[in-house]
Amino acid sequence: MSLYIRREASKYFHGLAARGVHYFHRPGPLLQDVGFFLLPELGQDKAYISETVFTFVFLSFFLWSFHPFILKSKKIYTVLLWCRVLAFLSACQILRIVTFYSTQLPGPNYHCREGSKFATLPPPDNILKALIILPRGILYGCGDLIFSSHMIFSLVFVRTYQKYGMQRFIKQCAWLIVVIQSFLIVAARKHYTVDIVVAWYTVNLVVSFIDHKLPELPDRSGAATFLLPLSKDGRTKEENFKLLNGNSGDPIDRRQRTPANGKILENGNTVHGDAMMNGV
């Protein structure tokens, strides 16, 4: 529950900051951008492609993080993993808020250009309007450019799977998808190229720094050996199996047994029982 509250609180404050910078946004001519010259513009009717790729990355990581509840291969603890991911996301979004409040760029997206009714927001009449985040404000936000929030989530998810995932092929595909997503965001004119470039090195540096500061996740796959079921006398099933096969389950109690042929081994000396009875 606390993990969910922290996640929702982080999303709310980030959304509140993004809405706040929209009040300062002023539409203007698009800035010169090398990505706009090199990549063909997708257009408004194909702008959903980049969002589809991002949704695929998000849902794939979300479902993978809960796989210990379904599959037998339980290498990670889901709650501890998401605590780590939220630490990465929170740090990156704080830096993002500081960055886009420092300098407001004219938004390259279609609804942020001159002539669009969504390009500017009128000042709020009361404090309640300033604190309420509407879905339309999330979809039609302007001014929160440097650096891309979509790239923050995608890079954090891919780096996390790179460290804790098992399939090498999926790791390679995940990095390829993030690279493709970077080009699609610029081609859809949702961000400038600088927004993507800054996200690539900032997110990787932040994740590397925090990852060294946080304690490492315990390996859940080795925890099964310590959770063997106990019998009524307190012994594990493995120890009882050893006892049935003639092996003592307690390594300390290894007293010698008297063999059936009358030989006794004690203190390293072998004595015949028949000889002792004859007085020899």
What's the structural blueprint in terms of helices and strands?
Elements: H1 2-22, H2 34-38, H3 48-65, H4 78-102, H5 127-131, H6 135-139, H7 149-164, H8 168-187, H9 193-213, H10 237-244, E1 263-266, E2 269-272, H11 273-277
Antiparallel strand pairs: 1-2
Helix pairs in contact: 1-4, 3-7, 3-8, 4-7, 4-9, 7-8, 7-9
Write a brief caption for the model.
The chain has 280 residues and is mainly α. The chain is built from eleven helices and two strands. It has helices at residues 2-22, 34-38, 48-65, 78-102, 127-131, 135-139, 149-164, 168-187, 193-213, 237-244, 273-277; strands spanning 263-266, 269-272.
Distance between the termini: 80 Å
Order of helix and strand elements from N to C terminus: HHHHHHHHHHEEH
Provide mean pLDDT, rounded.
Answer: 78
- Mass-distribution shape: globular
How many alpha or pi helices? 11
Helix content: 40-55%
Radius of gyration over alpha carbons? Answer: 32 Å
Strand order of the largest sheet: 1-2
Structural class of the secondary elements? mainly alpha
- Could you give a short account of the major beta sheet? 2 strands, antiparallel
